[in-house]
Design goal:
The complex is a heterodimer. By secondary structure, chain A is an alpha/beta fold. Helix content of chain A is about 30%, strand content about 25%. Chain B has helices at about 5-15, 15-35, 40-65, 75-85, 95-120, 125-145, 155-160, 170-185, 190-200, 200-205, 210-235, 250-260, 270-290, 295-320. Classes of the chains: A alpha/beta, B mainly alpha.
Chain lengths: ~500, ~325
């Protein structure tokens, strides 16, 4: 078994996007290293480089000081590196024991898998988390039928069953409850005592301070700080994660919350509950821009989809005082709600179809039968011009547009319907700086016209610059609301990580 | 313990449960229309006709389990049929016949390997690739035997048609062998990999399962099973026809789906599809015994198949409504 692994100057590109430009990480036996960073800083890419899921484009991996090439997960496994994947590597249709022992099944002399041994060894592993399961978890249960926390534990046990010298825990605690986290940390402590190494990727400050010996901070694909946990404070870590110089300039008028109190309440969400949301309530006044913050995957998407009628929920959503109860997005559209989805390519656009078709998709019903195509074209052109859409013509497919312009088409198709409430899911993801500025101007202008905007963004600058206030989500709940002076980067990041100290409410 | 034996559990853990119900229904119907169906002669007469489809369906089932689909199985059946009918001939010796049986199997494996190479290694769409190669295979069959004809020696054909060791038709031995092999395979590592690759290929890859080779192998298995079906069909008909396999492709897919194998892969087995193939064949039987006007035959048959396919989903829908 090896004793240390170093990643030096790692570079990884996905297409044209640079995920890691200078990633560094050292880990040796008997210690836990926390890998920390904001959204999109390259944490997951870093762990995928180390476990062979992606092949690096530059830099080196050193195992006990000598270079190694990890071409596949199998290669990493052979070197004793195991991973608990954030997006679980379990096969839903297979049972707990089949999943844990996949590729390493104990065999009988007949060349078949020994069901008895598998069951016994699985029971042994399950007993490590004995008492923390909500259901009577059995080796023969199908994984698809398990709740998220138990799936996560199976994923952890699967990695443990490899008996690796280096374990990568990528957001392994995200869906665990406190008792299960406690049990995991006891196990991690054991591994450390046995001379194993752990890379702990997490968003939760409290856990990082509890378990890690050293830290390594990533920012925009670069490692910007490394050191001992004992020499650092929460505040210092947050500072490291934040880009110092701000390029953001915003034109939003300085308004205080008081300005909206006499405006009517546009949207009122009360005690919404879904599989990912836990009792969310808030109000948005007409003409307000409210941001939703927090790390990715804390329930923001589900919240927007619920309001749009695309996801079932328990609780109440009111639009101008009227209970909505949308069962289908069509109903929400009719009431003047628009949703700009997070995954532009999959949910927002028909890539191979023309710009005209995409712009008019939600509005064709207004053009009669047979369609008054001439008028549709004129309307589409007007919207295109007002958005400064750079295109060769309305007939061109959307796939011919750049990311920013494609996003303009997504927004444009809703603008044609003149909605009163805009829901936007990370609208500037993968959009260039110039277009971003145009979006900000557009959103600000829409609000001045009396439309209301509720948007999630993974970009802290954007949330701070654009929003009147920001609701920070953590674990499916709105943990903190930031407004006015308190709406700054330090508070926002600290609140996203679930930390509460140092946040002025 | 009680909770474990509810409908959902049975459906998810024993995918062959529903096809078994369905098979029981069609057997009862068939028995009403054909009271002597369990006489050895009638039973053998039925089973020898059903066997080729069962063989193809097992191959199709394996491909579906691995997350793919094979539209070219009928083409492979046709090639094998035309090779045997033209090369062996009515006057051929048994040695010649067995030599070409082996060649047929090699041809089937090769055809499957071509499919597998395109799909697993070049990462082409299974449905398009095998649709394209099906023309290749049917075309080859037509090239070998442009007009129906040829044949194999009658005594070899009758070996298939009338063999019933210990008073049980040959087909039952084949089915039993298939099931035994499947029980063995599904408890080997290969079987576990198959379910993993069909269930969630990305997760299987991250767990270091050889995904590409697994996908490749499923098409080779399908090619092999199609070759066996082609041999059985040739012995049944005793002659050659390049179009003989045409109906088998869609029938095998239908049989596998009735048998509980999911199109999305990773769910099902081989016992279900065998029952599915039997069900389909019995439906054909029932229709010919029910004195249905030939004009209506296709429509009636199709309606029954659609109903059978829709049944599990419909039951699910009602269950959801109720809860």
């Amino acid at each position: 078994m090896a004793e240390s692994l170093s990643a030096v100057n790692i570079v990884k590109r996905y297409g044209g996007v640079v995920a890691l430009s200078d990633g560094n990480l050292d880990v040796k036996t008997g210690e836990v290293v926390a890998l920390i960073g904001a959204n999109g800083s390259g944490k997951s890419t870093m762990s995928k480089v180390i476990n062979g899921v992606v092949v690096l484009d530059g830099g080196q991996l050193l195992l006990d000081q000598s270079p190694v090439h990890l071409s596949s997960p199998l290669a990493a496994k052979k070197l004793g590196i195991a991973t608990v994947f954030q997006e679980l590597s379990l096969i839903p249709q297979m049972t707990v024991s089949e999943n844990i022992w996949l590729t390493r099944e104990p065999m009988t002399n007949w060349g078949t898998v020994s069901a008895k041994q598998v069951r016994e060894k699985t029971k042994e592993l399950l007993s490590l988390f004995e008492g923390t399961f909500k259901t009577a978890l059995k080796p023969d249960d199908v994984v698809a039928s398990l709740p998220p926390d138990e799936k996560q534990i199976i994923e952890i046990l699967k990695a443990m069953s490899l008996d690796p010298w280096l374990m990568i825990l990528d957001e392994a605690t995200a869906s665990l409850d406190s008792r299960q986290v406690q049990r995991l940390f006891e196990l991690v402590q054991n591994w450390k005592d046995q001379g194993k190494a752990v890379i702990f990727v997490s968003h939760r400050m409290e856990e990082i301070f509890r378990i890690a010996d050293r830290y390594s901070v990533l920012r925009n694909g670069k490692t910007v700080g490394e050191g001992k946990m004992s020499d650092v404070t929460e505040k210092k870590l947050v500072e490291l994660m934040i880009e110092k110089e701000s390029i953001f300039e915003y034109a939003r008028m300085e308004l205080t919350a008081a300005d909206f109190v006499d405006k009517p309440v546009c949207l009122e969400v009360k005690n919404i509950q879904t599989s990912t949301l836990d009792d969310v309530s808030f109000k948005v006044h007409e003409g307000e821009i409210v941001g939703i913050g927090g790390l990715r995957g804390q329930g923001q998407r589900d919240l927007l989809l619920s309001i749009f009628g695309d996801s079932r929920y328990q609780g109440s959503v009111r639009l101008y005082g009227e209970e909505t109860n949308f069962r289908h997005p069509r109903k929400a559209m009719k009431k003047g709600i628009a949703l700009v989805p997070g995954d532009r390519a999959r949910e927002g656009l028909l890539y191979i179809r023309s710009i005209l078709e995409n712009l008019q998709l939600p509005s064709w019903s207004r053009y009669g039968f047979p369609l008054k195509v001439g008028r549709a074209k004129r309307d589409a052109k007007t919207v295109g011009q007002s958005l400064n859409l750079v295109m060769a013509g309305l007939k061109e497919p959307v796939s011919s547009l750049s990311g920013g312009n494609a996003q303009k088409v997504v927004i444009g198709k809703w603008l044609m319907r003149k909605p009163t409430l805009f829901l936007l899911d990370d609208p500037t993801k993968g959009v260039d700086v110039g277009t971003k500025a145009e979006f900000y101007a557009l959103l600000t202008q829409l609000c001045e016209e009396g439309r209301t905007i509720l948007f999630y963004s993974s970009d802290e600058e954007e949330l701070i610059g654009l929003s009147d206030r920001v609701l920070v989500m953590f674990d499916g709940q709105i943990r903190t609301e930031l407004r006015g002076e308190a709406l700054n980067k330090e508070n926002l990041i600290a609140a996203s990580l679930g930390a509460t100290n140092g946040v002025a409410q | 313990m009680k909770k474990r034996w509810n409908w959902d559990f049975l459906m998810s853990r024993y995918p062959a449960f529903f096809p078994l119900l369905l098979l029981a229904v069609v057997i009862v119907l068939n028995l009403v229309l054909q009271p002597n169906m369990f006489d050895l002669e009638t039973l053998n007469g039925n089973m020898r006709v059903f066997l080729p489809l069962i063989l193809v369906s097992v191959g199709q089932a394996v491909v579906l389990l691995g997350g793919g689909i094979d539209i070219s199985v009928g083409g492979i059946v046709s090639i094998v049929n035309t090779i045997l009918a033209t090369r062996v001939g009515l006057e051929g010796s048994p040695e010649l016949m067995w030599r070409y049986v082996i060649i047929s199997i090699v041809v089937g494996l090769l055809a499957g390997a071509i499919n597998g190479f395109f799909i697993a290694f070049l990462r082409l769409q299974p449905i398009i690739t095998t649709y394209a190669t099906s023309f290749l295979y049917f075309g080859l069959a037509l090239f070998i035997l442009p007009n129906p004809g040829g044949g194999i020696p009658a005594d070899i054909a009758s070996l298939y048609r009338t063999s019933a060791p210990l008073g049980i038709p040959l087909a039952f031995y084949v089915i039993a062998l298939l099931l035994l092999i499947w029980i063995f395979v599904s408890s080997t590592r290969y079987g576990k990999y198959l379910f993993a690759v069909g269930g969630k290929p990305e997760a299987a890859y991250e767990t270091a399962v050889p995904v590409t080779w697994m996908q490749f192998s499923t098409y080779v298995v399908a090619g092999f099973m199609s070759a066996l079906a082609g041999i059985a069909l040739t012995m049944l008909s005793g002659s050659g026809n390049a179009e003989i396999g045409e109906s088998m492709t869609l029938n095998s897919i239908t049989a596998a789906v009735i048998g509980g194998n999911a199109f999305s892969g990773g769910l099902g087995g081989v016992a279900g599809p065998i029952m599915g193939a039997l069900t389909l064949s019995f439906i054909q039987n029932i229709i010919s015994f029910a004195d249905i006007d030939t004009w209506w035959e296709t429509l009636v048959k199709a309606s029954i198949i659609v109903a059978a396919l829709a049944a599990p989903g419909t039951i699910d829908l009602f269950r959801r409504r109720r809860s």
